[in-house]
Amino acid sequence: MVIAVDAMGGDAAPEVVVAGALEAASQVRGEIILVGPAERLERLLPAKRPPNLRVADAPQVIGMDEDPGRAVKSKPDSSLAVTVNLVRDGEADAAVSAGNSGAFMFLAQVRLRPMAHVSRPAIAVPMPGPRGARILLDAGANVDCRPRHIVEFALMGAIYAEYALGRKNPRVALLSIGEEACKGDESTRKAHELLQMPSAPVDFVGNLEGNGLLSSDVDVVVADGFVGNVVLKVTEGVAQFLLEGLRREAARSLRTRLGALLMRPALRRVKRQLDYADYGGALLLGVNGICVVSHGRSNARAICNAILVAQRAVAGGVRERLAEGLERWAATVTDSESLATQTA
Amino acid sequence: MVIAVDAMGGDAAPEVVVAGALEAASQVRGEIILVGPAERLERLLPAKRPPNLRVADAPQVIGMDEDPGRAVKSKPDSSLAVTVNLVRDGEADAAVSAGNSGAFMFLAQVRLRPMAHVSRPAIAVPMPGPRGARILLDAGANVDCRPRHIVEFALMGAIYAEYALGRKNPRVALLSIGEEACKGDESTRKAHELLQMPSAPVDFVGNLEGNGLLSSDVDVVVADGFVGNVVLKVTEGVAQFLLEGLRREAARSLRTRLGALLMRPALRRVKRQLDYADYGGALLLGVNGICVVSHGRSNARAICNAILVAQRAVAGGVRERLAEGLERWAATVTDSESLATQTA
Questions:
Q1: Which class would CATH give B130-277?
Q2: Domain coordinates of chain B in residue numbers?
Q3: Using the beta-carbon criterion (under 8 Å), do B185 and A226 form an inter-chain contact?
Q4: What interface predicted TM-score (ipTM) does this complex get?
Q5: Which among A166, A159, A92 has a CA at the least distance from the CA of A133?
């Protein structure tokens, strides 16, 4: 197994990416390829490096804020492009990057191509829950999703949850603003309708309101990529707001300062549940190759975990399972249902 | 000043509504009318009731989960309808309800009518921030908003923030998935364009990502009502998840249990920042009358605070300020800009 890592991706690249890859090298079964300006990367590596870590040269770098389309076109030898190319050319099984996520998704879709029966690949992010994680998708690969795209997300999310969370017949919910089928914007209402059809490829449990995202008993939550991305970042922001508020408020008296000190282990455990560094990266589901999209602010631990996510996805055969599930679905849909879905 | 309160609205009505109204009666300068089945309400009131609290009879009740349109039609004498009618007929200055919010908004729009230059009234909710509150709108009065509706929200939000938060030239941001103008779904991108036009009636500071909702230095955040409602509820859910997680984790050892006990004052202060009971209710901006929409799970304190929100809105002349601001905007927009806005 070979995992290609974009060494220049992320706010603190390449230093933290190299550190994360070194950390991961001792844990993965397989090889890690660090992609970026070779000389610069070699200087960051220790004299005695792990035998399963090597460097692939890529002289150009795509900045975090560059326009994806333009950057990909003008920088054919960027670390991100070369990372994805390694997967396309069969030289690596997975690509990991904390860099410009728009450019990463653009490259993944154009170079690796969407899988059969997938019109829109989607980003799947694990979210915590009281009795176990759930998968949120799409967390930002798409905007202006059509209802049928959301059905695809539901199927891909369910297959992924079955494998990654070990859930039999994952329960899939649709993020909306009320439980009734009539609630939501036009695209959500139509997606609800499609997900309730006999051909719907998942165990659809209905709409889920925002306050149930982390508390309800579901395995997969689907949404348009715009909504999913806003929600993912709001979750991050609220957690940060509360934990920082707690720190600030606790500092105000000796009593609460002491309390905070004693509570530290509990605080740390809660904090970790919503810490992206802990889950490492999100999978881009629906392209021909394993792609792990990491947070731009990833630290070394996040990069290491992202590489481990990639390893598990390759070893677990996520791509093969998705291909199989999508094929089975396509075969069972009746003509009239297919028509309804295709025009939605 | 007269405030009409739907006594039958909310999960724990009429008991908590009556309790909340009694609590508010000693604080408001003006009269409170409790609207609902008179006999039932009279039985809940103490023998010696406040002189500024009276009951108006309304025999019917609209359930929390009833279809708004159908319920309004089939129950002309519902507590909610009579509450709104009192405002329409000039017998009350404001309407407060924790009941079926869809039915409340439907009644408000049909009976009180949108103000001049407003095509879509919007729900404005205060959200906490490190250096003071900000206003989020629309928090769920609309779905499938058009770009020009979002410009209306921006103007109404800015006028409201100026008055309610005491901000001069409020800074208005657009919720999206990236800071660049090109980020977001179609409607958001177009709204960004309109908000940047010379005629735009607000100080537009650009896009805001979800993680900045509670941390960035803005006064007003605008979004489509679907997104705004999901975000509002996700905020509630994440706060609950973290605080419950903290309670559960703290219970695991003597050390952390003691810590939690000592930290209680700090925990309570942080919790209050995101507690809807503390802000009481959200204003429906853009209709001819003050309407305060409260959370269905409101307790007596929330109802009392909602009545105080209504009082401040009436006393502060929110409606008059909005009318004036909307008029000024309409007068300054050039023909070509107006055309661009109207067709968006």
A1: alpha beta
A2: 1-118+286-318, 130-277
A3: yes
A4: 0.92
A5: A166
